[in-house]
Amino acid sequence: MNPPSVKENLEKIFSKISKICHKVGRDESEIKIVAVTKGQSPERILEAVECGIVRIGENRIQEALEKIPLLPHQGLEFHFVGQLQTNKVKQMLLHFHYLHSLDRIKLVEAIHAQALKLNIESRLPVLIQVNLTGKETQGGVDEQRLVPLIERAARYPELDVRGLMTIGPYPVDERETRRVFRKLWELKEEINTLKIPGVYLCELSMGMSEDFEIAIEEGATMIRLGRAIFGERSTLK
After folding, report:
1. Distance (Å, rounded) from C-alpha 128 to C-alpha 141?
2. What pLDDT does 237 receive?
3. 3-state helix/strand/coil string of 45-107
4. Quick one: pLDDT at residue 233?
5. Closest CA to 53 of 218, 223, 202
6. SS3 15
7. Nearest CA to 225 among 1, 38, 7?
8. What confidence tens digit (pLDDT) does each residue in 145-192 have?
9. In whole angstroms, what is the distance from residue 229 CA to residue 8 CA?
10. What string of DSSP letters covers 17-53?
């Protein structure tokens, strides 16, 4: 038996999103799918685009640079969702529209410096990645350093701080996963009460293939889906 197609997988996802939003009283138009395309060929990505996907998420700069030229740029947003090294900032600025993983002041300063060198005048929408599981491998700033990082990022005209991002616990434990996602929503609300100049957090990027339903219930506005859309990862040729 052949595995489900990208179209079939997305139809199931759209249906789940609709049911969850109805259950918790949310508007399903609030939920933005970022299709995480690590390990997927341009052909597979185009299948998702034909089904209405407009946000393409990549974890690795080098892999993205091989695929982005092969994809239509009109109407697509390219989101960088992995941990970003400072020596990759130039390529990120040249090829991506959105950054989900701003997590340290050194990275803020590197983006500022490269934007000046490249004479980029547009503001880059960014999310601050917060580590709420305590696992160093997941990356992200801890709660104590979150507000100082946002205040620093807000000083630079190149950055538009839109919201927060986190990675839930793996393997998924519903109680702990819900706690992490709820905490991110609470942090967003708390930070907005501080009225940091130039900052109003409206986006929460949380939830992946294993836990996006919980994330939507807890306030996610962006969900990062790879396996749920494409099935098991293929080998990029």
Report:
1. 8
2. 42
3. HHHHHHCCCCEEEECCHHHHHHHHHHCCCCCCEEEECCCCCHHHHHHHHHHCCEEEEECCHHH
4. 65
5. 223
6. helix
7. 38
8. 999 999 999 999 999 999 999 999 989 999 999 999 999 999 999 999
9. 9
10. HHHHHHHHT--GGG-EEEEE-TT--HHHHHHHHHTT-
Of the CA atoms within 13 Å of residue 109, those in its CB half-sphere come to 3
**Mean pLDDT score, 61-65:** 96
Q: Output the CA angle 230-50-89, nearest 5 degrees.
A: 70
Query: 60, exposed or middle or buried, with CB in 10 Å at 0-12, 13-18, 19+?
Result: middle
Q: Is residue 161 within a helix (H) or strand (E), and if so which, with residue range?
A: strand 159-165
The full length of the chain comes to: 237
C-alpha–C-alpha distance, residues 142 and 134, integer Å: 8
155 DSSP assignment: T
How many other β-carbons are positioned within 10 Å of the β-carbon of residue 155? 11
Q: Rounded distance, CA 35 to CA 54, Å?
A: 8
| pLDDT tens for each residue of 78-120 | 999 999 999 999 999 999 999 999 999 999 999 999 999 999 9
Burial class from Cβ neighbours inside 10 Å (0-12, 13-18, 19+) for residue 14 reads middle
Residue 45 corresponds to which tokens in the numbers above? 């990505």
CA distance 235 to 237: 6
Task: For residue 109, give the 3-state DSSP assignment.
Answer: helix
Spatial contact of 141 and 155, defined as CB atoms under 8 Å apart? no
For residue 14, give the nearest of 236, 233, 228, 235 by alpha carbon.
Answer: 228
Residue in the block written with tokens 């807890």:
218
